[in-house]
Amino acid sequence: MATVGEICSYVRSKNAGPFWVTFDLFFDNAEDFRRYARHPAIGPETFQRLFGANPDQVKSFPVESLNMVKISCVRPTPSGSRVERDLHSGQMFVRLLDIELD
After folding, report:
1. Which position among 9, 73, 82, 88 has the lowest Cβ density within 10 Å, counted as fewest Cβ atoms?
2. Pairing between strand 20-27 and 68-74?
């Protein structure tokens, strides 16, 4: 089975304000984008399992012209809070890399 890390040429995460984080998955080509951009493995339930996100608050935005999908969810703790482990959310994407897509 192919994983997000194998299918995507670039994956990143970053703050989308103090309460949200966004994940960008850039696919190698249009064919992979069409096949995987709406794949259930990168759906709301995965973000609930990996990040404790409320599935109703996971938003997915496919951007066909860039062969990428942007997925945003509420952060587990606000940016800069006392228990924050990744102030800029720059390392949160790592949990997505081993997600199987096929």
Report:
1. 82
2. antiparallel
